[in-house]
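Here we describe the complex-level prediction in full. Unlike the single-chain runs in Section 2.1, the two entities below were treated as one system.
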Amino acid sequence: MNTTYFKSIHALWALLIASGFVVWLVLGEYSMGRAAGSDRGYLLWSGWVALTLFFIVGAYSLRKYIHKLGWSPEFRYQADPKAVEQTEDAINNLNREIAEGRLINRSDMLSRAKLALSQAGTGRIFRPELDVEKIGEVEHFSVYLSPKEPLGRMAKWMHAHLFLGLGAAILVLVHGGGQMATPMGALLNGLSAVVILTGLFGIVIWATGPAKMTAAETDLSIEEAFVLSRHYERKVTAAFAELGDDDDLVEHFKAAADDSGDFAKAAEAGLSQLTAKDPADSKGHVLFQDIMALIGQRQRVNRSLQKLMRVRRTLNLWRAIHVPASVFLLGLLVFHVFSVWWY
Amino acid sequence: MSDKDKDLMEKLAGIELFQGLKPKSEAALLEFKQFRVCEAGKVFVNQGEYTSEFCIILEGLVSAYRSEPGGSGVKRLGTLKPGDWFGEMSAKSNQPAMATIQADTRCVFMAIDPPLFKVLDAPKSKFKTLIDDKYRERALSAHLRAAPLFKGIKEEKLIQLQDIAEFVSFDTGKVIAAEGNEADAIYLIRSGAVSATCKDKETGVQRISAYFKDNSSFGECALSTKDRMWKYTYTTLGGTDTVKIPRDKMESIFEEDQETLQLLSLTADLLLSDDEGEATSALSALSDAGNAGALSVDQLEIMVQRKSVKGGEALVIDLKKCTRCNACVESCVAVHEDRVPRLSKSGSRISSDMVLSSACYNCDVPECMSACNDGAIRRSSRGQIQFIWDNCTGCSACTLKCPYGVIRMTGTDSPEQSGRWRSLFQEIPVLGKLFNKAKLADVDAPEETEEEALVSLRTGRKVKGKAIKCDLCAGLPFEACVYNCPCGAIDRINPEALFAAKAASN
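The structure predicted for the assembly as a whole is:
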């Protein structure tokens, strides 16, 4: 199980925000979802914070897609390879100075490295870091470069998505009180429940599913099965081409090659037709055996691929509900804010 | 020839190295030469840095320095003046620079890249003779001294050995010595790489037992007191220059010095006993090179121990965490203008749930680079193997040579030609697949483009595509696959640390 999902600083943030509003609710003796009197301030705050959290949560998907499309701002950081080489040379020289004892102060080492980065124009892509190796009592330093990763790793965004989403769910509850009396209330609360439940289901599946998928990949991994399947597909097509224009025989082979058909029956029919046509055609029989072996291999690989694809679909199917529901929910939330303001 | 070229050739005529160039070499020199300028006091090349250029000093003076092993300080080797050169080993086999070159005055160099160097360094040319003579004068004694067999030999004996040394060059795939034949010489590798293979007694398959690269030596068995037969077949992995010291000549110069000859034989016996132990353990794990596309973990571990893997950190996928969402591949596509992923999720399974992805290992002996005749593969100063798109003619020699199968051929559209707008449509869920044209070479070849036609005309070869491999997202502040994995399933890990952890867990 991937337990890293459940270890995150964002869990603490979400807990603090949600518990803050719950404590405020209890201490203020407010009723959940009421917009009258002194409850108004609480309602506005919980609403705005929930909306903000929802947008932060949605930013995860946005970040994913803008990266895929190449629109992410970090793409503009790309440095010229020559500048990268120049930086590496400068860091090499710096490390030589450190090794020769000409530079002994840690802060000097880092500031020199930063200077080298700014001179080469690569300060936006690299961060200098200090590596300390202790040999005996002596500490040996060297500077190395780490990529800056300006927007942070997607795994961290995933943690924020997960925990801030859960925090937002609690806020929705204290803000709206789970009212289902009005169509808008029912829609908003219902959609929130769908998004939260599918999300929770998804995280459980993502935490436990990969191990199951790996266990299912006993023979071939899904990538290997896919590549092999294409390979046999091409081989079978090429072998059919060798058969020439004997349409009946090709039909039998095609029937045997059909994954949903009866391989053994079609193979037997093809063989009997071949024997009836020319019992002494040894070349034809060898070709027949080769093709049948290829078809058999292809079916074995395809079965394996289909099984793995099923597991993979199970791993990701929940997103088919979670993502559209989330987009719809965000739209409705914006509409809800404007409608509340209007009335 | 233009007036400018004529002037240049007149200037170059004063340099011995360029005297007697054949017209074809002269034309190549004029077309592909480059110039470098280095201001006084600046370091032009650092010792240990990977360069691939052969440089001739046209103006100015430079000093050469070398850090001696064991941290005993920096030694000044001498001053080089106009007409002198350096970097021949780097141009021949991309060895790291053997010395630091610092400009004493403002210098102008003529830089010659490896493909041009190959043309000029033709067999029997004056250029080659001069390079060889300079090597004999400058580096041969150091090379002999570095060979384990000659460690205990006196200086005057080494000078005698220098005199009998023969320079022999081999093309790619040539057998220098065959298993079972009589060992008649000791070989020192000046440049290039050699594999030592022997026949598996059970399967009859040739198995690799060791690699020898520049500045190493083999053939100690020629002086052994026991069996003077080659135990392995030594085959070149690329164009290889060797120094051959024939046994009979060695015996004749040491005829009156039986003590030295005995010392050499004893050293050879000692080295051979070590070598057998190492070879046996290597043989038990290494497979034949032909099947090396899917190396086992043990094989990879040996490659790491032998420092054949120089990639820094290996790309590892944790299958316990990977949800197969494909975000890593999609983000790899996003950072490459040609929209072709460099990432391969397949590789060797280190354990039941860890995969060592077949990304480029930046080998110590990069066979891809020695196979490339078009200057399309080079090493960065930090040792990373880089492909130069414009120089690639799509001959696919590197793809065939890569022992790990990490190089692939893709379409020939330049990054500018493959538009982003098509990719926008590709990103539409479900419908996007309609716009997704597979571009790998195994798909039916598209019509020949103008660029392909030109290359075909120039080289006489049909361009099928361009070679690509993982480029570590060069120039970007992240490595896309690692950066964009929502599950934290893919990461870069030091291979030695990885295998050490695996050994500890066993």
